[in-house]
Amino acid sequence: MSTNKVCIVGAGLVGSMIASYLAQRGISSDIYEKRTDIRKDFLSGNRTIAMSISYRGVKGLNGIGLSDFVTDHTIPKHSRMVHCDNGKIISQKYGSKAEHTINTIDRKFLNQTLLNKAEQSGLVSSFFQHQCESLNPDSGEISFVDLTSLDTVTKKYNWIIGADGLFSQVRNLLEGHKILKTEYIDVHYGYRELLIPADHNNRYQLEGDFVHVWPRDKYIMVGLPSNNGKFTCNLFLPSDGELSLASIQTEEQVLELFNKKFPLLKPLMPTLTYDYFNNAASNINAIKCSNWNHKDKVLLIGDAAHAIVPYFAMGMNTCFEDCTIFDNLMDKYDNDLSKVFTVYGQYRKPDTDAISDLSYKNFSEISKSPDKNYHLKWKLDRTIWDMYPEKWMPCYPMVAFSDIPLSIAVTRTEAQNDILMQAIETGQFDQISNDESFKQIVHAYFDPILNTIEPIFA
Ligand SMILES: Cc1cc2nc3c(=O)[nH]c(=O)nc-3n(C[C@H](O)[C@H](O)[C@H](O)COP(=O)(O)OP(=O)(O)OC[C@H]3O[C@@H](n4cnc5c(N)ncnc54)[C@H](O)[C@@H]3O)c2cc1C
């Protein structure tokens, strides 16, 4: 007998969030998670500790009544600080308003909070150390191995949601039934999580109001201010080759890399070599999927459906937006879960494909120290935004601080970039130091162009 509950595979960020969205509509669910309960145990597996959450992610949390969590437990940053390879330091403001912040959030605490929230509804039951093994997508019969007893548990559900992340077993099983195809995007990059501890007075060793970035072509370090004066850093480096994730095996090689690429950072990282070999590390992978559902029975969501590279810090944000879009569709289709399973991918996939491509391209943006043209483009982009806020928005704010559909944000970015590049090629914006004359020239050049552009927020 199938139950009227929804089966959710994966109690990660998305599995536990979607359970709350369903519970708000009176829909019960069972969550199965292969790991131990994250609320009782150390975070198992190789996961990053600190994450950036922006508007789309915050909206997902607000939708299940967790707006206080964002104000109380995140660290907002308005700007990023770029430490160029020539020693220059550049500060760049992300947006134009006080609420335009990137917020650091602790992954484990967030996941714990989401699970508590789901279970507090009284409509969600969680089963830990239950690993999904097999699935009959037509009947809804699904089997899990209970990793404590090694018994197999088989249940039947009318609806199954695969929220089991990048290496989703639900997706693999659907692929085995020739229901979908997965495209694996191997970017040949990996990451290592490192730490800049607090100073002796428990204060940040670098400015705590900024995301810090050290672009070094093949290597990028990103530092997020975290709790207690720490910075959690991600070092992105090639998967293989000289001084790569695969080839660095000794403390001497770690020090060699830091002496060559990050000499000023090394003194701030007293536990560098220990952290390098003991903290989270992995290859970076991304996937796209041909489709996300099997009829009205099985649906993929979150990283299971569209894991993206982390160069725009939008993976979780996009996944949380998945949940709000799902919820909007439940409104649109009168709580008809079966209908939503069948239409969800059509609504959502263009946007996740777009952010996947954009995130991949962003590597070239964040890996290089800004040059003269970069500065000019940045200045023009922001000046035009200031002058025509209803018609123009730079890429980063569109993605991070708005809920403009991601596919539209990407298309507009491409169009805006073409306009900017043509403007820069004219050479007329090059040498203007005075902001007022800069604005006048921008007006003279861009007024006729902007007159032909549709407003963004129509
Ligand atoms: C280095 C790095 C940095 C990142 N930084 C950011 C950032 O700053 N901001 C941002 O927005 N995003 C970031 N991301 C992306 C973010 O981590 C993911 O998008 C997010 O974790 C996806 O959530 P999820 O619930 O879909 O998958 P997961 O978080 O992976 O959860 C899946 C869950 O399913 C469980 N599971 C797997 N297989 C099975 C099975 N067979 N049976 C039962 N359970 C199973 C897993 O144990 C896990 O708990 C980053 C990613 C990386 C790699």
CA-based shape: globular
CATH topology of the largest domain: FAD/NAD(P)-binding domain
**Class from secondary-structure proportions:** alpha/beta
Distance between the termini: 49 Å
Top-tier CATH class of the largest domain: Alpha Beta
Q: Figure out the total of helices.
A: 14
Q: How many whole angstroms does the radius of gyration measure?
A: 23 Å
Count of discrete domains: 3
CATH superfamily of the largest domain: FAD/NAD(P)-binding domain
Strand content: 15-25%
Biggest sheet, in brief? 8 strands, mixed
The total strand number stands at 18
The amount of helix comes to: 25-40%
Defining traits:
alpha/beta, 7-stranded mixed beta sheet, 18 strands, FAD/NAD(P)-binding domain, 14 helices, 8-stranded mixed beta sheet, 39% helix, binds flavin-adenine dinucleotide
Please provide a written account of the structure:
This protein has 458 residues and is of the alpha/beta class. The chain has three domains: 3-84 and 106-185 and 285-362, FAD/NAD(P)-binding domain, CATH 3.50.50; 194-281; 372-451, no CATH class. It is 39% helix and 24% strand. It has 14 helices and 18 strands. The protein has helices at residues 13-24, 55-62, 67-73, 107-120, 169-176, 251-261, 272-278, 303-306, 315-332, 337-367, 372-387, 395-400, 406-425, 435-451, and strands at 3-9, 29-32, 50-53, 75-77, 79-83, 89-93, 102-106, 124-127, 130-136, 141-146, 152-162, 182-196, 210-216, 219-225, 231-238, 281-289, 293-294, 298-300. Strands 1, 2, 8, 9, 10, 11, 17 and 18 form an eight-stranded mixed β-sheet that branches. The chain has a seven-stranded mixed β-sheet with strand order 6-5-13-14-15-12-16, with helices on both faces. It has a three-stranded antiparallel β-sheet with strand order 3-7-4. It is globular, with a radius of gyration of 23 Å. The N and C termini lie far apart (49 Å). The relative contact order is 0.13. The model has no long low-confidence stretch (mean pLDDT 93). Flavin-adenine dinucleotide (FAD) binds next to α1, β3, β9, α8 and α9.
